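User: I'm designing a mutation panel for DNA-binding transcriptional regulator of glucitol operon and want to avoid disrupting the core. Could you give me a predicted structure to guide residue selection? Please restate the sequence first so the numbering is unambiguous.

Assistant: Good idea. Sequence first, for numbering, then the predicted structure tokens:
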Amino acid sequence: MTGKKKFKVRFSHILLLTLGVAFTLVAAYWQWQRYTSPDGSVQNLGYAIQWPIFGGFLVFFYLKVRDYENDRLNEDESSQELEQLEEENSEKKGKKKVTTVSSEWMPSPVNTDIEAYNEKFAPRRRKDRHDGDD
């Protein structure tokens, strides 16, 4: 078994995350300045509190995506290992791997005669048309 694969953290990811968090902190500071000014309102205070929460969400989102990618990479690796073990096991037992399904096992296609089908429901259609004339 090989080691677990890890999601590659790239410089561009860190740069974008840092810029996003920095933007939210600058926006929070700006809203705080507006709140403390004579024209400030409680709405500015709300925004000053919200912006850092948005920055925290960016970090949380990035960490969750990283975890999901690590899980996906490890699942892919473990499924490949399972396939390899199944092949080795089938080779030891001398069994062939089934790749196609025999036509004997497949159901035969139903061949319905459209004319017979239409005639079967013709009385009902006539009745429905007649009832709709009221």
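For picking mutation sites, this is relevant: The mean pLDDT is 83. The chain is about 70% helix and 0% strand.
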